[in-house]
Amino acid sequence: MESTTIKNDLLEYAIDADGFATITINMVNEPTNLFSIDFIQSYLEIAQQAVENPTVKGVIVTSAHRDFMAGADLKFIGNPPKNKEGLFKDILNVHKGFRTLEQAGKPFVAAINGTALGGGYELALTCHHRIALSKPSIKIGLPEVNLGLLPGGGGTQRLSYLIGIPKATTYILQGKQFRPTQALSEGFIDQVVTDQEALIAAAKQWILKNSAPIQPWDDKRYKIPQGGLMSKSGADTMIGGIGNLRKKTHGNYPGAQYAMACIHDGMLLPIDRGLEIEARYFIKAFYSKEAQNLIRTGFFAINEAKKGKVKPKGFDFYTINKVGILGAGMMGAGIAYVSARVGMDVVLKDTSVENAEKGKAYSEKLLQKNVSKGRITPELLQQTLDKIQTTDQTKDMADCDLIIEAVYENPELKAKVTQETEAYLNPKKIFASNTSTIPITLLAKASKRPENFIGMHFFSPVDKMPLVELIVGKETSDYAVAAAVDYVTQIGKIPIVVNDSRGFFTSRVFSTFTREGALLLHEGVPPAVIENVAKRVGMPVGPLAVTDEVSLSLALNVMDADQKERGKTAQTLYELLHKMAVDLGRPGKKAGKGFYEYPSDGHKHLWAGLKEHFPSDPDYLDAETVGKRILHIMALESYRCLEEGVLNSPTDGDVGSLTGFGFPPYTGGVFSYIDYVGIREFVEDCDNFASCYGPRFIVPESLREMAVNQETFY
């Protein structure tokens, strides 16, 4: 008979009649099991009791939750203790405790019945054997670098011993997560089984066969796969890895550099010294501004946004069973796909059934790709496609819960389809316009029910881009906002809610990035410097490449449509775009020529003619100034959006900038970036830029006051 000997809020401990002890991780006050100092201390204490108990043959470590252990307690990580030295000592004590268990001669088996990430997988690494259920929902790995950290529970050392330096370095730096069968083939675990009963049986069997196990790192005869650090493969990994890391991160993610240093320095020494080195580097990464930015925005704020935190209070959940989409072009087709994918019925309308069918074919192409990768079955492909009804008849929209208009960016056309469709829509249902720049209050004039009219700005390609920017017009009701937030969370996207203005938040701020790139070119900065520096400071692509993607002629049309008198900067930009798109006939990527050439072999490169038409001076500006201008202008425009009430909070700006237009994640977003640079230095830089490059860098008085008072956004 099994008799429970210990039970607390963190775990349960039991010894059965056959002498098998089980430590079941069960954090009753948390939705998931978390690797925390409290848990570790409790675990080490109980595990030590099991070691000292002569009746115990071995220990099985498993979980009562759906996950084994999902990683570290980010509430602790997001709020580091002031005492760095104290934390360092705590980590060393943890290592000491685990090392005592590893060397005690009693077998420990990790019975992984759910996801084991970060500290959860590191706990499994301290066991002598790892068995996992072969459920595809389970993930195993060390993803810490994605949060600016590094594995701090022994992962950099133990995994390197276990699977070899080349593979461990690659997977730690990529933050790679594996399904159980992949984890087995990569050496992360030793065995997979099909069900819970088999899991515990296999653990017991292993204990019986291995009564005095030795960890590989304690076995003098053990050979590290592919050789140690001084072998050819170890040396090649380090030499190649340093270059690749620099190329990929440009030095913006110190956690990844420290992880590599842990492997390099630690693998030259015995395991205990290696763990001490890891602890030192972990502290450096943990207290870095980059890690805190990534945790605050990249984890907490984005996850809260995903759950619909921006939804107005007091409204029931608005379930969307059927969505109508007007326009089956790129955007409409993408919205149809993400809606059908989660089980919604979709009516996809265009001017002809043939056009609507072309839009539906886009979903088929994406689904087919998923079938070929084994992510979905052919049956699911068919079920999803059956959800999309194509039509050219407005009356087919009659019983939709939500209509999304996704026609061309033309106010007259949008007004026409709004009026036609609204006539069939239930008065309590919501009408949304997918627009990237046209004010919603203006578009809502075509509606009989402007209170149920909202802007819904998707990003291209819709299936990949996570953000949806919801725009509140002058008369948009909280009910419409709540319904729109619910739809966005139902399709698995991230909503932010902003107030009306031309370009809203994302398009307005992102346009300053492309504008600054063009102005730098006009001033004489070599185009390759502009593009490379933009990537070096963390933007996914350079501003000239983005302008090509969007199309220079489109940017020109937008400027033509804006009847405002152009200032000096706008006029310079207009003339540059006109010269490129009209005079030189290079309107962008679609035409196969813009700032870049697009040869048939697919390798785009900057157009050589830029040198002739925009003479450059390599010594005109240093790279640091170019990088600052590119990021500062976006942060400054974001602050204006906050001051004008377009944005409701700095957090919305940070989430929107990271997920909408690829602002560098290590900065934490546009507002965190101002804190990251330091508000006084940021204002000083902008003042210098305003005097040298123009009034677009003039700092609002309220931001200047913040700098004087040394206030921060977080």
CATH fold field value of the largest domain: 2-enoyl-CoA Hydratase, Chain A, domain 1
C-alpha end-to-end distance = 55 Å
- CATH H-level name of the largest domain... which superfamily? 2-enoyl-CoA Hydratase, Chain A, domain 1
Overall radius of gyration: 29 Å
Strand content: 5-15%
Question: In one word, what is the shape?
Answer: globular
CATH class of the largest domain: Alpha Beta
Output the strand order for the largest sheet: 13-12-11-14-15-16-17-18
The major beta sheet can be summarized as: 8 strands, mixed
Q: Indicate the low-confidence ranges by residue numbers.
A: none
Question: Got a strand count?
Answer: 20
Oligomer: single chain
Helix content: 40-55%
**Total of helices:** 29
Tell me, rounded to a whole number, the average pLDDT: 95
The assigned CATH architecture of the largest domain is Alpha-Beta Complex
Label the structural class. alpha/beta
- The figure for the number of domains is 3
Show the helix and strand layout.
Blueprint (H helix, E strand, L loop, with lengths): L2 E5 L3 E5 L4 E6 L11 H16 L5 E6 L10 H4 L6 H19 L5 E5 L3 E2 L1 H8 L2 E5 L6 E2 L13 H9 L1 H10 L2 E2 L1 H7 L4 E3 L2 H14 L22 H18 L4 H13 L4 H16 L2 H18 L15 E5 L3 H12 L3 E5 L3 H20 L5 H9 L1 E4 L10 E4 L5 H12 L7 E4 L6 H4 L9 E6 L8 E6 L5 H13 L3 E6 L6 H18 L3 H10 L6 H8 L1 H10 L6 H16 L12 E2 L7 E2 L3 H4 L9 H22 L5 H11 L9 H8 L1 H15 L7 H8 L6
Parallel strand pairs: 3-4, 4-5, 5-7, 6-8, 7-10, 11-12, 11-14, 12-13, 14-15, 15-16, 17-18
Antiparallel strand pairs: 1-2, 2-3, 8-9, 16-17, 19-20
Helix pairs in contact: 1-3, 3-11, 5-6, 6-9, 6-10, 9-10, 10-11, 12-26, 13-14, 14-15, 19-21, 19-23, 19-25, 20-25, 22-23, 25-27, 25-28, 27-28
